[in-house]
């Protein structure tokens, strides 16, 4: 009896599972009495009858179809297996994980900008994330006519509209066309919202969108680099520090060990500081010539006044040498050699 009981039974499972497969359809086969349904981690099983959803099963494990599945099917819950007849339904297995896909512009996107009449040619790259969000819509728009659906199919849909969305959101959020990376987050957020609205039509939700980098033509990139270097040289102290650090790291600045290297770096920084002080002092002198002239005249007047005024102590200054004999005087009133009165 055991032989006759199980001879027609089968196993309903995702037989062609791939990591890049969004769904796979078990179809055109008859489910016999005693058959098993196997749902693995990261999978959902959807029973379909004539294109209509009969039941969605999300728990992983092995289930007896006639006793654990059929009682939960909407219109087939009263189905009875015959001795040699079964139930003909479709089972759609859906991959529930979140997919991450790399994207990149296939050709430069011309972004309108006043600086370049023909537009700024820009390439970009990054990643986006998606997952199945609406089973009913997915079945209605995609699974009804396809046996399986791959990540590559979603990528083709997204990249077909991505250039237009990049142009739209770069023009809107790209406040500095030569530093788009500073606004990459706002640009990516806008693109994600638009993509999510479009992919919602097939039951796919865009859960993330990232712009990793923007790439300019070589001549534009050279101009950006040159402009940045000129701005850095304008700050003499920063330029000296960066030059000294680069010299040490590249080995062009050498010394007798760590202490010598540090001393050389400190010397360079001090030289830069002194140069900045001198530049600031010269700028101040050039900016206030009349004030400096008045200050010099006042200083000269004070010196002349001091020269004609008598000593505040009232004492005559003693000569250092005797005018009579030339002996050295230690501040005495009379010469210790010849007795000449001093002062």
Automatic annotation (TrEMBL):
SPFH domain mapped to chain residues: 27-230
Compositionally biased residues, Polar residues: 298-314
Pfam family, one: Band_7_1
Domain Putative zinc-ribbon: 322-342
Region (Disordered) residue spans: 280-333
InterPro entries xref list: Band_7/SPFH_dom_sf, SPFH_YdjI, Znf_ribbon
Compositional bias segments (type: Low complexity): 280-297
PANTHER family to which the protein is assigned, alphabetical: FLOTILLIN BAND_7_5 DOMAIN PROTEIN (PTHR37826), ZINC-RIBBON DOMAIN-CONTAINING PROTEIN (PTHR37826:SF2)
UniProt-recorded name of the protein: SPFH domain-containing protein
């Amino acid at each position: 009896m055991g032989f006759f009981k199980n001879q027609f039974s089968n196993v309903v499972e995702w037989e062609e599972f791939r990591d890049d497969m969004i769904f796979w359809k078990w179809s055109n086969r008859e489910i016999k009495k005693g058959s098993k349904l196997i749902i693995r981690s990261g999978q959902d099983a959807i029973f379909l009858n004539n294109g209509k959803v009969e039941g969605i099963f999300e728990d992983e494990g092995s289930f007896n179809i006639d006793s654990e599945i059929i009682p939960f099917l909407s219109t087939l819950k009263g189905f009875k297996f015959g001795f040699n007849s079964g139930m003909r339904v479709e089972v759609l297995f859906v991959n529930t994980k979140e997919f991450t896909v790399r994207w990149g512009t296939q050709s430069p996107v011309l972004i309108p900008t006043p600086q370049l009449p023909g537009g700024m040619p820009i390439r970009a790259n990054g990643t986006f994330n998606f997952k199945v969000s609406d089973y009913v819509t997915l079945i209605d728009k995609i699974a009804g006519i396809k046996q399986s659906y791959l990540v590559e199919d979603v990528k083709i849909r997204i990249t077909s509209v991505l250039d237009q969305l990049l142009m739209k959101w770069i023009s809107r959020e790209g406040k500095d066309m030569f530093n788009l990376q500073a606004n990459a987050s706002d640009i990516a957020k806008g693109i994600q919202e638009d993509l999510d609205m479009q992919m919602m039509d097939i039951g796919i939700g865009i859960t993330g969108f990232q712009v990793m980098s923007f790439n300019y033509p070589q001549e534009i990139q050279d101009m950006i680099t040159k402009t940045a270097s000129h701005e850095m040289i304008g700050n003499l102290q920063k330029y000296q520090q960066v030059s000294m650090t680069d010299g040490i790291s590249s080995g062009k600045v050498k010394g007798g060990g760590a202490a010598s290297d540090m001393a050389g770096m400190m010397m360079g920084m001090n030289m830069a500081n002194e140069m900045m002080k001198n530049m600031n002092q010269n700028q101040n002198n050039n900016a206030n010539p009349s004030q400096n002239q008045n200050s010099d005249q006042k200083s000269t007047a004070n010196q002349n006044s001091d020269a004609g005024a008598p000593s505040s102590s009232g004492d005559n200054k003693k000569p250092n040498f005797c005018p009579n004999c030339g002996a050295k005087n230690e501040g005495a009133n009379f010469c210790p050699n010849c007795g000449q009165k001093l002062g």
